[in-house]
């Protein structure tokens, strides 16, 4: 009987050892092999429809405005008269220049006659060469004076034409900066013309986002007034931030869109890419204090690796600090300890 009880006791001991061996079997974990990718996120900005080409129109001469044929919002065609100046003073200047041309022409004719006469006398040995040279010089001076007078007369005639301001292209008057009766100087802006044949959307991008924006990048644009959606392309990025708002102006070219007016608002959606970002499920993150870490599997054992969090999505996280080929535990991270052996389930 004692031998029988001893056998049973040994059997229980062996069973306990087998159970202990089963408990110490390495845990099974799910892993993910790292592949570096470019993570994309979408940012939305409010923009305004503008003309690509805006021209500040001005007169090339000074004068008093006597007529204005347009107002803000007027649609104009190329060559259409927009404003005129009082031409009285310029007309008088033109007449004076024409009179100067007539005077210098007479002096030139006299100098030519004298030169011809003294040339004949020189051929007959009636005068010295020095006398002939004097009349040649007088003729050259008269010719130069005549040419200068003609140029001045042409300039005066051009100034007379400059008293009429015309549209340089089809478009819309977006600003009127001078009124009838006002005396303006040459080059002073009096009207702003926006060409409507090519439109764009201007948006302001914060300085912490501008690095993700590139020329030629496509954008999805939705107009709030019409609900129309089109695809645009970034064509210009301001090289400097606004001194007050600290934003960069980005201009986006638009295709030909009907029913879109200048000044309309639009939503611009841009996909911004973060290079060398690794995407992991949220379950892979092992938090210790303020540090985010992951379990790496190497040689059948796990070890902690600290990482940087780039961004959170709904069920995933974008991280930095890992390299392609690393094997990361993505399930069961809270039951592991450093140096522990594990079994892998992909």
Structural summary, described in words:
- The radius of gyration is 43 Å and the shape is elongated.
- The chain has helices spanning 2-23, 88-123, 129-161, and strands spanning 28-33, 37-51, 54-58, 63-68, 75-76, 81-85, 164-166, 171-176, 183-184, 189-194, 199-206, 218-223, 229-237, 247-253, 265-281, 286-288, 291-298, 301-312, 316-320, 327-331, 343-345.
- Helix content is 26%, strand content 40%.
- It is of the alpha+beta class and 346 residues long.
- The protein folds into four domains: 26-41 and 276-345, conserved putative lor/sdh protein from methanococcus maripaludis s2 fold; 43-52 and 197-272, Efflux pump adaptor protein, beta barrel domain (Elongation Factor Tu (Ef-tu), domain 3, Beta Barrel), CATH 2.40.30.170; 55-86 and 163-194, RNA polymerase II/Efflux pump adaptor protein, barrel-sandwich hybrid domain (OB fold (Dihydrolipoamide Acetyltransferase, E2P), Beta Barrel); 88-160, Helix Hairpins.
